[in-house]
């Protein structure tokens, strides 16, 4: 990435632009204020000087005679009419371009400040006041005249020019220092971004154990923390996926190994037909186990891909439970367990009946699978607030408290050999929880080792208010 396209560069440019505008505005303000006050004090000095010159008759007399000694940088000119002729009395060699109209107006009585130029092009600030020359003696009568006192503005112009060049140098120096500082600070502030990008580049799918090492508490620190949490989640997901693949192949290998061993054993030599029958029964049982494992793997794969098709209708849970009870009763009888259908209140939920049946059947199968005879499996259905609660209770082996948080994970089994021997795949509860959550519900477990477990399925009632 080129420097021009970096955020660092853009940050600095914006910052410099704002700073330049502020400095120019400040410089302009200083220039304006100083020039105003310098010109005002020049006007004040001119006004004082004019009062001084006009109030002393001798001075007026010498001005009229053209003998007045002006101060350095000062020009004094007297205008009056002699007949129709406008007479101008000034030091020799001095020419000020003032319009006749302006001079006539002053002679007529008005006084004003104005800016004019000498014939050499030098700028002058001047005050023109009207005076009366009659007190100076003949010719008698009222003699209106105009006295112009002018001073060069060169000194002010020099001061202002020096101010402009000083300000320009100061602004340029400030901008240069600010640009250097801006690039340095932006670079420092954005260094964590480079670090984040570098770490992100280094992280590969297979090694997600790396983390971004940014220890600040600012926005970039928060970004790094968020990215680290995301990488952590990805790592866990990849780990789960790897674990799942290895578990699935392991689960499929076990029945395959049994089938392979059983069939090679049967084929080794001629055997009585009863032995073949037994081998085929074992093979068929293992094939069934594989088939149900593959079915459940497919269900989970579809769930993960979000490709499940749900057929939501109004499901009468009490009816569904009553139906299931008939099947479960047979399972219980086969295993020497008793079955109890407890209180079943009316409850309607919005759901996919086939999938709900699968959910309850998984839990009921587990209840039967993990309960040694003699024992009892019972089901009840109650409404609680806006929810329907189906409780499946057994008097089986129970689940140790340390295992309870994990039993809904794929392939997690408390006792692997017991589960496999009983035909379990280790996927039933993962599927059941997925179905419950897809219906906006949840599954809770209470269990005590040696005395049994209760799995409670909570599903939202439909419509929520009409059934309370
Ligand atoms: P499995 O096919 O092994 O039964 P599940 O996902 O249905 O797989 O259950 C996961 C594990 O939870 C089981 O292996 C078993 O150890 C435990 N479990 C589930 N239900 C019960 C129950 N009713 N009683 C005791 N343990 C249970």
Structure characterization notes:
With 468 residues, the chain is α+β, with helices and mostly antiparallel strands. The protein folds into 4 domains: 1-55 and 153-189; 74-152; 219-305, Signal transduction histidine kinase, dimerisation/phosphotransfer (DHp) domain (Helix Hairpins, Orthogonal Bundle); 313-466, Heat Shock Protein 90. The chain has 10 helices and 12 strands. The chain has helices at residues 7-55, 57-65, 100-107, 154-202, 219-267, 273-305, 317-335, 353-369, 416-421, 428-438; strands at residues 74-82, 85-90, 112-117, 123-132, 144-152, 313-316, 338-344, 348-351, 376-384, 387-394, 442-448, 452-460. The strands form 3 sheets. Strands 2-1-5-4-3 form a 5-stranded antiparallel sheet, sandwiched between helices. Strands 7-9-10-12-11 form a 5-stranded mixed sheet, with helices on one face. It has a two-stranded antiparallel ribbon with strand order 6-8. The longest helix is centred in the first third of the chain and has 49 residues, at 7-55. The two termini are 65 Å apart. Bound molecules: adenosine-5'-diphosphate. Adenosine-5'-diphosphate binds at residues 362, 366-367, 370, 394, 396-399, 407, 412-415, 419, 424-430, 453.
Which keywords apply here?
53% helix; 19% strand; binds adenosine-5'-diphosphate; Helix Hairpins; rod-shaped
H/E element order: HHEEHEEEHHHEHEEHEEHHEE
Q: What is the strand arrangement across the widest sheet?
A: 2-1-5-4-3
Our measurement of the CA-to-CA distance between the termini, rounded to an integer number of angstroms, reads 65 Å
Number of separate domains: 4
Strand tally: 12
Low-confidence stretches: none
Radius of gyration: 53 Å
| Biggest pleated-sheet summary | 5 strands, antiparallel
Number of helices: 10
State the CATH architecture of the largest domain: 2-Layer Sandwich
Strand content: 15-25%
Are any ligands bound, and if so which?
A: adenosine-5'-diphosphate
For the record, the CATH class of the largest domain is Alpha Beta
The name of the CATH superfamily of the largest domain reads Histidine kinase-like ATPase, C-terminal domain
Helix content: 40-55%
Structural class determined from secondary elements: alpha+beta
Question: Globular, elongated, flat, extended or rod-shaped: what is the shape?
Answer: rod-shaped
CATH topology of the largest domain: Heat Shock Protein 90
């Amino acid at each position: 990435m080129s420097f021009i396209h970096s955020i660092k560069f853009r940050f600095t440019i914006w910052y410099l632009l704002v700073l330049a505008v502020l400095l120019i505005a400040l410089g302009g303000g200083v220039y304006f204020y100083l020039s105003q006050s310098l010109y005002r004090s020049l006007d004040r000095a001119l006004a004082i000087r004019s009062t001084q010159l006009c109030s002393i008759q001798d001075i007026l007399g010498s001005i009229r005679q053209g003998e007045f000694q002006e101060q350095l940088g000062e020009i004094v000119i007297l205008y009056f009419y002699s007949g129709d002729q406008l007479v101008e009395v000034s030091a020799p060699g001095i020419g000020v371009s003032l319009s006749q109209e302006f001079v006539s107006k002053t002679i007529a009585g008005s006084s004003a400040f104005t800016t004019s130029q000498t014939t050499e092009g030098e700028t002058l600030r001047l005050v023109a006041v009207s005076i009366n020359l009659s007190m100076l003696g003949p010719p008698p009568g009222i003699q209106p005249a105009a006295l112009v006192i002018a001073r060069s503005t060169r000194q002010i112009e020099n001061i202002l020019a020096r101010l402009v060049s000083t300000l320009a140098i100061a602004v340029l120096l400030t901008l240069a220092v600010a640009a250097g500082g801006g690039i340095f600070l932006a670079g420092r502030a954005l260094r964590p971004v480079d670090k984040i990008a570098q770490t992100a580049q280094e992280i590969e799918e297979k090694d997600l154990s790396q983390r971004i090492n940014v220890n600040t508490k600012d926005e970039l620190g928060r970004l790094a923390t968020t990215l680290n949490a995301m990488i952590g989640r990805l790592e866990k997901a990849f780990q789960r996926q790897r674990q799942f693949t290895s578990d699935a192949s392991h689960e499929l290998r076990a029945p395959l190994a049994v089938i392979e061993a059983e069939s090679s054993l049967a084929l080794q030599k001629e055997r009585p037909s009863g032995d073949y029958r037994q081998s085929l029964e074992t093979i068929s049982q293992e094939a069934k186990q594989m088939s149900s494992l593959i079915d459940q793997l497919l269900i989970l794969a579809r769930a993960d891909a979000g490709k499940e098709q749900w057929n939501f209708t109004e499901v009468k849970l009490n009816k569904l439970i009553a139906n299931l009870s008939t099947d479960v009763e047979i399972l219980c009888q086969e295993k020497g367990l008793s079955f109890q259908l407890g209180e079943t209140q009316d409850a309607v939920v919005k759901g996919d009946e086939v999938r709900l049946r699968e959910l309850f059947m998984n839990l009921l199968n587990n209840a039967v699978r993990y309960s040694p005879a003699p024992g009892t499996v019972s089901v009840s259905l109650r409404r609680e607030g806006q929810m329907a609660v189906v409780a499946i209770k057994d008097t089986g082996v129970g689940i140790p408290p340390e295992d309870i948080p994990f039993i809904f994970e794929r392939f997690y089994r408390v006792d692997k050999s017991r589960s496999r021997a009983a035909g379990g795949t280790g996927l039933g509860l993962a599927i059941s929880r997925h179905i419950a959550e897809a219906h906006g519900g949840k599954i809770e477990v209470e269990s005590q080792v040696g005395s049994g477990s209760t799995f409670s399925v909570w599903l939202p009632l439909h419509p929520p208010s009409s059934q309370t």
